[in-house]
Amino acid sequence: MLKRLLTVRNLIILVAIVALFVISGLLGLGAYKPSVELAAPVVFHIGPFSVTNAIFCAWLAMLLLIIVSWLATRRMPKNLEAASNTDLVPKGIQNVMETIIEVVYDLVKDIAGPKVSKFFPIVMTIFLFVLVSNWFDVLPGFGTIGKLEHPTEEMATNGYIAKGAILTSQPAASPQEGYVMVSLFRPPSTDLNFTLGLAIISVGLSWYFGIRAQGASFFKQFLDVSAFKKGPMGVVQNFAGLLEFVGQFTRIISFSFRLFGNIFAGEVLLAVMAFLIPYIASLPFYGLEVFVGFIQAVVFMMLTLVFFVTATMGHGSEEHQ
Fold first, then answer.
1. Which of 66, 82, 101, 213 has CB atoms 3.0–4.6 Å from 312's, for a disulfide?
2. Is the C-alpha dihedral spanning 301, 36, 23, 279 positive or negative?
3. Is the pTM of the predicted complex or chain greater than 0.85?
4. Higher-confidence residue: 214 or 10?
5. Residue 190 and residue 178 in one domain
């Protein structure tokens, strides 16, 4: 009898929530045209430093990873010799994190071999940071929680303007008439500055590992003066080295726009689908974004790892032999 009452109560609560959403949608309360901008808007300032909503969420991602790391390691015994068998068995969030780390570690070890200890901490950090940043896009409140500001002339012409408590699709007569909502949260991966920074770090570290492993010989892949002694083949070899040098910079561009394009397109898709077919009909697209966010984090991690490995390999005749 008690279980039946609980089931009926939960059903009534669910129907009431759905009815509230439907009624608010029919009355136009809180309904607005999805506003998606390439440039991340500034939400507050710390002295002379302007903090955008993408930077703010990047800090939240770092804070979340720090908290999860602390929760996963706080019960780990400091003295393994004195610890009992029960203490050595991972539980809860520690078990989950150890499973994830073990899977990624084995994958990195298969590619990097004995260099796994150098590369794993970096690529694992990149993977978790990008994954959390991507998955922020599907959290409730992202894109809908923010502050109202007077619109610029461009916003007044193209955006949906808020009058009072109701957002309307009628453009404002002047830039200072009405309001627009500036979202407080934005997934970091939808900001090109974020993906560009990660790409520069990835390629820059590949150069660091390459120079550290090969020394000055690392630059022979770009320009080898001694190869000119081979005649025409030496010219062809150095021309290929020039293309390789240009390719180092195209890596940064491809890295940046691959991650940015996929996640930003997903944000636009979710905004449009939530506006056209709100509520239950748009739920499958959230599942799609979870999958795309995971795949993009894996791709970014794997390409970074491949860059590290190839940079530490020789490019001269000794390596070919």
1. 213
2. negative
3. no
4. 214
5. no
Angstrom distance (rounded) from CA 78 to CA 200: 37
pLDDT in tens, 205-217: 999 998 888 887 8
CA distance 145 to 149: 13
- The pLDDT of residue 65 is above 90: yes
Instruction: Mark whether 93 and 134 lie in a shared domain.
Output: yes
Residues 105 and 154 in one domain: no
Instruction: Please give the Cα distance from 174 to 181 (Å, whole number).
Output: 16
Q: Do 243 and 152 reside in the same domain of the chain?
A: no
What pLDDT, in 10s, does the model give residues 230-289? 667 767 777 777 888 888 888 889 888 888 888 888 777 777 776 677 666 667 777 888
- Asked whether residue 72 falls in the same domain as residue 125, the answer is yes
Average pLDDT (37-61) is: 82
Domain identity same for 288 and 263: yes
140-149, 161-170, 203-212: which has the minimum mean pLDDT? 161-170
Same domain flag for 255 and 109: yes
